[in-house]
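haha ok so turns out i had the wrong file open the whole time. this is the CORRECT one, sorry everyone. sequence first:
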Amino acid sequence: MKKRLFSILLFVLFIYGPAFQLSGQLSQGGKPVEIIASIMQTVPVIDIPSLSSEQSIANPGITELSKLKHLYFANIYSIKANPQSSGKWIDDQSGNKIWLLGIRSDESYSIGLILSKFQLKGEARVFVFNETRSCVVGAFTKLNNNTSDILPVTHIPGKCIYIQLEMPAEQTDYGELIVGEAALAYLPLFAEDPDRFNMADACNIDINCPEGAEWQDLKRSVCRIVINGNKFCTGTLINTANSSRESYILTAAHCIGSQGEANKSIFYFNYESPTCDGPDGPTTHQISGSNLISTGDTLGEDLNRDSLDFTLVKLNVRPPDSFRVYYAGWNRTLLPASETVTIHHPQGDVKKISFDFDPPQTGYHVVKYYPEYVLYSHWRILKWDLATTEAGSSGCPLFDQDKRLVGLLTGGEATCVSSINDYFTKFDYSWNYYDEPAKNLHFWLDPLNSGAYSINGLDYDTYVDPSETESLKVFPNPGTGDYYIQLDRNSNKDGMFYICNAGGEIIQSGKIKKDNIFRFALPEFPAGIYFIRLIFPDRIYTARIVHLPD
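then structure:
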């Protein structure tokens, strides 16, 4: 049921800025210290004997019944290793302290990591590489610290990888580091694997084929997502009504449905073949980690057809200009498009494009597939005219004839053999079917409450007024009761603050004296998501708070 948001939350501008907005989840570059072969041979290696080991974390997989189009490609193995209990410490000739640990799985094509505790200090840095050092990831430094304390690390090709922590001679405390989990790929992910290339079925069309010529801007908004190191989906970098260039990614809730999954996601931009039917593409444009903003997933509640299959996350950092990203526009009108296009990563492969030259129908991801979604909340593609979607395409955008997003993929029956019946969650339903900010897109994508029904896309280098992009730092976040906010600059005048719960109800309000530090408390409120808005005559700020009382 559509409901009215509390009016104070609708007419003011917000700038959302979590505490870790300025900390990077991009690798910092550099090379690890070279260790001579005789010493490397003495480094302890955790051997994972079998992907079916009792320590393997259960992989739910995809059932034929559900028809959801995410793709599992790896098993998760619990490691829980740290420099105090595992691995080997050595000193190099300059007195630098180096810790090394190997992880081997003879059955895997590649290995990814979840660093379940990552808070480095000083000049400490971490690299991950394979035995031949043909693939090196890092350095990860204190610039990669974030409030979740989690850092997912992309898959490294090979059956054995090493994690290397380095610390200068004068430093005695590296901080905190725990290697929590290893993701062991049972499907090939890299071009050097002979079985990898062209994993997507033959009818799929590379984005840089002639059919994709008119979609070269929109393709830069679409990214491949790896969740938990073991699941492929697709997402879209999406524009806001005030063109704020917030780093919002829209995908399916069955891809990312929790803060834990948002923490453990890696987003790959520009993964595409450089030519039509050409070679594999680079995966270097990647950002690790995100913050859950809103989701229509209510499957933890009563299963009464009350879920919408969308999730909005915010990347831990804005994509740098070198990524040349595009922020996709959208259309939330009720009328069906005259024709549609989707851009996606089937089987986690390079970017592809599919076409339907007919209007979609209002449909439903039928009961036998997944009965908990809201009735009539999907656009149904009766039949793709060119190409199809596959596992790994979940969350991909459905664009209308004006190149605006109108839906995102839940799943369906379409394959290259029979390209019928795909279902895309309607953007209109995701917009404000629910009125709570934590369950809709309206609050985040139209912060001025402009009432816009459609907007165009935005290129990465489009000028934006700096006053619309100032960040707001809340700490600690998550927290237990007492919070502090640091503004990027002093306001010239006093202002007002409003704190609301996830349902949009204001629970605290008051005046703020002009200062760059603001203190507030939520001592008696239950655990959950809260939003704070600071309103000054010349600035308005908004932040999301994760409240976890003792």
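Confidence is low (pLDDT under 50) at residues 1-24, 52-56, 58-63, 463-470.
again sry for the mixup
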